[in-house]
Amino acid sequence: MKTPHSNATTKAQVLPAHVGFRADRALCAIIESLNRRAAKTLFHEGLVRLNGTVASGSERVKAGDSLEFPNPDLSPTENLIEKAKAPRLTTPHGRHLVRLYEDNDVLVISKPAEIPVYRGQDGFSRRDTLEDVLVRAYPPKKIPAYALPPKPKSKGPIRHAKREDEEDEDAAPGVDNAAGTLQPGFYFVHRLDMETSGCLLIAKNHEAYEALTREFRERTIHKEYLAIVAGAVSWDEVVSTRPIKYVRGVTEKKYDEGDWRETKRGSTPFYSLMRKQRTEEHHAAPKLGQKKGIALEEGSEEGKPCETLFIALERYRGYSMIRCEPRTGRTHQIRVHLAALGHPLAYDPFYGKKSPYRLRDFEPSVGPSERGDEVVLNRLPLHAWKLGFTHPRTGKKIFIEAPPPRDFKEFARLLKKFRSFGNR
């Protein structure tokens, strides 16, 4: 029988029927909905005590022994039992994905950098994607055909929401449901660039998906990013409203030396504009399957209207840490607007510097040594820091924050140590 011990924990006595059980198996008998894997997780994290002492789970229990464990009746954000029961989110290479929030309707994870959301994103075809991880954790559910939600009229994907302000060809690939008896176990509500880390919002049922995508259409979702850019910005706050036009890398056939050969180039008239600007480092041509944005002049009707707020947080010699609040959701919007302001991301092969940073770039004393060659940044220094949305079932406002990953913090530490204006 369970008895409240505190707001965070509960106590229960071992029954005679459970005498001789391992402690983890006895806990599963007390909490009927708990499986052995989740029980082992609780013990491994030191969240269970046997007679007042932290237990490993392998102890044999006796009648009258007392088990103290996390309160299973707390809210989803505080319920350690439910978190332990949740499916593991681990890539085939053993990389663990951090859950920032989860309940029966919504999942928010901290997306690692360099893992694409879905196969084919930005022209990459690797299989180690968030889509693959989530399919294993939340497989499609078998339900009667009559109970399936209506299929979308567009050619949009089933598991992936398509933002209202993206072109049709930029939709994520869907999963065909020819049998009509499977409902996806999750839906991507929005997307992040492959090399961007931070908050990624996922719906766990169709009703939550519809409500959350409506929030994106109505632009009531709150998003904040942290970015490290090239140059010490001269402004404290600026709003960029330059429209963006996109070009896409395609394959063309040209007659060359008596034979037809395939070449890669942009697919729209704006490719000529991009070629003129290629003397600037941040205007490299897109590769096959990739999409690239070009910021047009204010008021131009040729591109998609965009708006991003930028706020300076810290300045260093040659770099700045800024906060970005995109008020529209165009592809590469933050990156394109930063490049147009003359402050591209410190590392961005598409719109800025293409070579990775090494330790010797900041600490000359290490020189051309093994330590000096150590790479300290080789991905976009862009992190989806905060996310605010209205819960689709309760109507409560939820605010989530994803701590910056280690490489982002290490790069910021090096800037503070070696590029502060006080250190010359």
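Above is the first protein from milestone M3; the second protein from the same milestone is given next.
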Amino acid sequence: MNSHTIVADIKVKWAEGQSAYSPGTPEELLLIAVDLLVRERGGEAARSFIDQVFERYAPQPLTSNEPDAR
């Protein structure tokens, strides 16, 4: 597995103020992204979006041209 770091400065402006983030790992970036998504769209909409993303990476069933041996 590859190991890498992220160098990013993320600034978010809200009606109530602003936030700044500096993720260093993919995990930290994901936490920031999910937090922003939930704040913007709400929990159910965020969950639906994330489910759609995970569907792309779902294991695909094995296909075989051979009939089942029963």
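Note on the second protein: The radius of gyration is 19 Å.
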